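Q: I'm building a small set of examples for a reading group on sequence design. Run inverse folding on the following structure and report the sequence directly after it, with nothing in between.
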């Protein structure tokens, strides 16, 4: 039972009496945050992963739409989905593309945090690691080092850390990148030539970094990397 009291306090409310405006400005979701989520999949997504996705928050009263691409090589899946989006008179006007892979488990507020850095950066991803006991953080290359490289970087704590490349397990892209005629197509391509071996993601990031686009990892957004065979979240 509550304590007896004489009620005389200010009733204007918590948010009217604190700097909630700064929080909204930082969050960036008062602007257009329309987002298309592309999910490449082999066709069956583990229940543990689906349960996690069902808790993912999207911005209030903003457009959010998912596209699943089944049984296609991952680079081809992204290329095909983005080509479809750009040819659609409605979806092509949206602001962002989010990539979400079938074994990645972002935190509930992960997407809301990614939006915060999109004023300064063109691509921001959550922090996740390759699978296994020797897993490495998928945050590649220090932009201050030359020549351009994709050496795994040590994650900085609870910040937005600039880098040269990311995985695509939970990564937010500005739509305008894919409308830029200077970005080579196909955007995503697994490459093995002249001593280079690139997965589709790092091939893309090398091309956009050379054009001056800015990439970062939000280390506050800690993403689990689920192994169905071992039932372990790495």
């Amino acid at each position: 039972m509550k304590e007896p009291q004489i009620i005389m306090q200010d009733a204007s409310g918590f948010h009217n009496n604190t700097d909630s405006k700064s929080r909204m400005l930082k969050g960036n979701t008062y602007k257009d945050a329309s987002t298309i989520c592309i999910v490449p999949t082999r066709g069956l997504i583990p229940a543990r992963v689906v349960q996690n996705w069902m808790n993912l928050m999207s911005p209030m009263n903003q457009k959010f739409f998912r596209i699943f691409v089944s049984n296609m090589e991952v680079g081809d899946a992204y290329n095909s989905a983005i080509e479809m989006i750009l040819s659609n008179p409605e979806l092509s006007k949206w602001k962002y593309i989010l990539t979400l892979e079938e074994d990645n488990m972002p935190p509930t507020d992960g997407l809301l945090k990614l939006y915060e850095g999109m004023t300064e950066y063109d691509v921001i991803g959550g922090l996740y690691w390759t699978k296994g006991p020797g897993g490495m953080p998928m945050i590649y290359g220090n932009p201050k080092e030359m020549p351009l490289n994709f050496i795994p970087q040590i994650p900085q704590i609870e910040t937005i850390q600039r880098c040269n490349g990311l995985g695509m397990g939970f990564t937010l892209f500005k739509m305008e990148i894919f409308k830029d005629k200077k970005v080579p197509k196909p955007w995503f391509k697994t490459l093995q030539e002249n001593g280079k071996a690139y997965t589709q993601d790092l091939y893309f990031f090398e091309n956009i970094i050379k054009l001056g686009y800015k990439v970062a990892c939000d280390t506050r957004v800690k993403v689990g990397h689920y192994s169905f065979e071992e039932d372990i979240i790495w």
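The chain has five helices and 14 strands.
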